Amino acid sequence: MRRLRNDRRPQRPGRLRLLLRRLRCLVRPALLVSVGVMVAGAAVIALAVSGTPQRLLADTVRAIEDAAADAGFVVGTVTVEGRVHEDRDAILAASGLRLGQPILAVSPDMVRRRLEELPWVEQASVHRRLPSHVHLALTERTPFAIWQNRGTFAVIDRDGRVITRDGVERFAHLPHVVGEGAAEAAAALLDLLDRHPEVKQRIIAIVRVNQRRWNLRLASGADVLLPEGHEAAALARLAELHRDSAVLDRALKVVDLRLADRLVLRPATDAAPAPAANPERGRRG
């Protein structure tokens, strides 16, 4: 009985191939798509349910794919949606798709996983549109800042994940964050700076110090030292000081806000710190 079963089943792919060839000549292409998919799917399901050995099942699936390819079910068009930064050739190479391959042999899930390994691709979906169209829909990561650490530069997303280290100069308009741990922590500080545009527009970089607190590097060359864990209050205080006395436009080397009850200003021409000042007095002077 086992010998008879093995002798008969290899003939099925040949019958399917013959059936699809006849259908190709007799019916319209749209109907051929539906019939071909139903026949192939039904055959595979029937073999799987019957407990067919894996090797024989795989051979049958390949035969069905080849038969469908003979009937016109091949990759003829690949379209890409959502591409902004990722290179198109890199997308096609990563997908593994090639024109003329049996479209039923394309695994949407496998292609999706390959695409999501690309630096810019956050999410991907793959759609087979029979008989010959594969559509790739991408959601790319959003560049958020340029991260500088140990002499290297990278474009990062809002979560601090590195997107790419190539072509960083194209993103020179993005905020510049510096230091170990700066990539992951930058979003919170930059959100606070959005509340104080008069401060933010004078900043050329935010610098992480000992992975604990921040310095703001101003276009003038001055550094604003922020207290650890109290950045919101310090920035509000700094914005008020600037409105009252244009402190950010002065020739300063350091603006130290680390102490809540005093402000220390160090002039650019004098390495020694200026006397500690009461914040209220600082606003008048």
Q: Report the helical percentage.
A: 40-55%
Roughly how many Å is the radius of gyration? 32 Å
The helix/strand order is: HHHHEHHEEEEEEHHEEEHEEH
Number of helices: 10
Q: Class of the largest domain, according to the CATH hierarchy?
A: Alpha Beta
Q: What is the straight-line distance between the termini?
A: 103 Å
Shape: rod-shaped
By secondary-structure content and strand pairing, the structural class works out as: alpha/beta
Largest sheet: 9 strands, mixed
How does this structure look, described?
The chain is of the alpha/beta class. It has 3 domains: 2-70, no CATH class; 77-140, Roll (Ubiquitin-like (UB roll)); 145-284, 3-Layer(aba) Sandwich (Rossmann fold), CATH 3.40.50. Helices cover 40% and strands 22% of the residues. It has 10 helices and 12 strands. It has helices at 2-8, 11-26, 29-49, 54-70, 88-95, 108-115, 182-193, 197-200, 231-245, 279-284; strands at 77-81, 121-129, 133-140, 145-149, 152-156, 162-164, 176-178, 203-209, 213-218, 223-225, 252-256, 264-267. A 9-stranded mixed beta sheet has the order 6-5-4-7-8-9-10-11-12, covered by helices on one side. A 3-stranded mixed beta sheet has the order 1-3-2. A hairpin with a 2-residue loop joins strand 4 (145-149) and strand 5 (152-156). Helix 2 (11-26) runs parallel beside helix 4 (54-70).
